Amino acid sequence: DIQMTQSPSSLSASVGDRVTITCRASQSISDYLNWYQQKPGKAPKLLIYAAFSLQSGVPSRFSGSGSGTDFTLTISSLQPEDFATYYCQQSYSTPITFGPGTKVDIK
Amino acid sequence: EVQLVESGGGLVQPGGSLRLSCAASGFTVSSNYMSWVRQAPGKGLEWVSVIYSGGSTYYADSVKGRFTVSRDTSKNTLFLQMNSLRAEDTAVYYCARAPPSGTYYDFDYWGQGTLVTVSS
Q1: Which of chain B's ends, N or C, has fewer CB atoms near its CB within 10 Å?
Q2: pLDDT single digits (tens) B59-82
């Protein structure tokens, strides 16, 4: 199975900050990497697919990069509605696996 | 408008069974790749199973042999039959759609989730 790790596990940031979350796969997954945002009590929401493609309707302040084993989600200017938990997910092979999540809260 | 609505969750004793449903609207279940993903209380996301548009199914090792995913094209509904339930199956279960244009696992729509609690 492909193991996914994320760092940091949590971070505190202010509105307007640039935030970067990293995700690492235990083996190369090319660009088969998705990012999701989840708010408490809600279903996850797809933000980025195929490592860097922005899902329709997602604000352009979200961006993704990387390939192989190392990936990054960047929020260019954090907004109040962005405080949430973010998960990466590999879609390269079954079993599909998610990272443990990064919780972004208010500083 | 695409919508997924799960139902069927509840409290069940260890060793018991439960059948979850996911009613879809705004698209055709059998033309997409439909997965179940679960989330234990306070924990992360765990993929459970998938049914491809062609009907092939795959499962996480943790549920293989106990869970069965299926669909009813006439009702445009996805199902998850869960047998031999264990305490560690306690979670919110989400159904999720992956469109055929992607990798089969780019989950662009999710249901609201249904809570399954396995306890005596």
Answers
A1: N
A2: 999 999 999 999 999 999 999 999
